[in-house]
Amino acid sequence: MTFVAADEAAVAALIDDLYAAFLAGDRRRFDGHLHADVTTWETHLPGPLRSRAELDAYRNSRDASGQRPQLALLVARDKHIDVWGATAVARYVLLARSHPDQPLSATRVTDVLRRVGGRWLIVHHHAELLRDQEETR
């Protein structure tokens, strides 16, 4: 396996673990994949969040009000990952379902990552809700 292929596999595994950590409610593990200066732009957020501190403030407020999403499914599909030295870009479709009887929602995601101290960390996360899916994957 080449270094690039190994890095692509490591980024793919990071993305899978990120969403597994979310489903498990393991914020510490989830946050371990984020750089302190991560920017987070998502359809449902109240504007771009320009650091982990801003993301934490949003999540703390959301969680305190009982609004943390409860999901039955959260999985990244169709991953396309490119690596250039210490920089990587991952593009994928994130499928989510709040309850087994509910339709899937699909979100188009782009993550930019940097290798810092030998670890890949997300420095920019951009997610745009596409539509609800009727199929049951």
Explain what the structure shows.
- 29% of the residues lie in helices and 44% in strands.
- With 137 residues, it is of the alpha+beta class.
- It has one domain: Nuclear Transport Factor 2, Chain: A, CATH 3.10.450.50.
- It has a five-stranded mixed sheet with strand order 1-5-4-3-2.
- It is globular.
- The termini are far apart.
- The mean pLDDT is 89.
Supply the key terms.
single chain; 137 residues; Nuclear Transport Factor 2, Chain: A; 5-stranded mixed sheet; NTF2-like_dom_sf
Please give the order of strands in the largest beta sheet: 1-5-4-3-2
Largest sheet: 5 strands, mixed
CATH domain class name = Alpha Beta
Write down the overall geometry. globular
- Gyration radius (Cα, Å) is 15 Å
Any low-confidence stretches, pLDDT <50, length ≥5?
none
Question: How would you classify the quaternary structure?
Answer: single chain
In CATH terms, what is the fold-level topology? Nuclear Transport Factor 2, Chain: A
Count of DSSP strands: 5
**Number of contiguous helices:** 3
Q: Alpha-carbon distance between the termini?
A: 31 Å
Alpha-beta content class:
alpha+beta
What's a concise summary of this model?
The protein has 137 residues and is α+β, with helices and mostly antiparallel strands.
Write the layout of secondary structure elements.
Elements: H1 3-24, H2 27-31, E1 34-42, H3 52-64, E2 73-84, E3 87-97, E4 104-116, E5 119-133
Parallel strand pairs: 1-5
Antiparallel strand pairs: 2-3, 3-4, 4-5
